[in-house]
Amino acid sequence: MSSKKPTTTKDTKFFHGLCVFLHGFSLREKPAISNAIKENGGLVSYGLSSKVSHIVSKNYALSRSDFDQAKLLRFVEECPKKIHIVSERWVNICVRAKKKVDERGFIVKEIAIAEEKEENEIEEVEDEFGIFGNFESVKIPNSNGDAIDNNDSKQAEDPKEKESKSSG
What we know:
The structure is a single chain. The protein is of the alpha/beta class. Helices cover 36% and strands 15% of the residues. It is built from 5 helices and 8 strands, in the order βαβββαβαβαββα. Strands 2-1-3-5 form a 4-stranded parallel sheet. A two-stranded parallel ribbon has the order 4-6. The longest helix is centred in the last third of the chain and has 19 residues, at 111-129.
């Protein structure tokens, strides 16, 4: 006779002790993700409460301009304990790995943070290439199609004047 332990121990239930609130999922999508959480030891909350440890969001960024998302962000800020807001991908990766993986790679950002980062990256590119900045050093093509430096003190010669100088 085999002395194997049943595979339904606490160790194999990697979501044990977690209470998950699902955000942004359609009624059609919720059962699959709920079952994945429950089958692996987690609880699914149908409302925001002090028991919630994780919020799994369908969205990859949350915006305070959206009423439901703003309410969610406020709840997380006001909650005395740490609540992880993660993407659906976190649940899928945990299930595939058969263990709870670190949430840090799956954190859902507040959109204001994402927009601010994007604006900073745009400004860096603008600074690097002088876009929207100082137009004094812009090269302007002349009638020949040659580029002339706008802040060059010499005026570009007219092609006809060039010809007369070189033939003379």
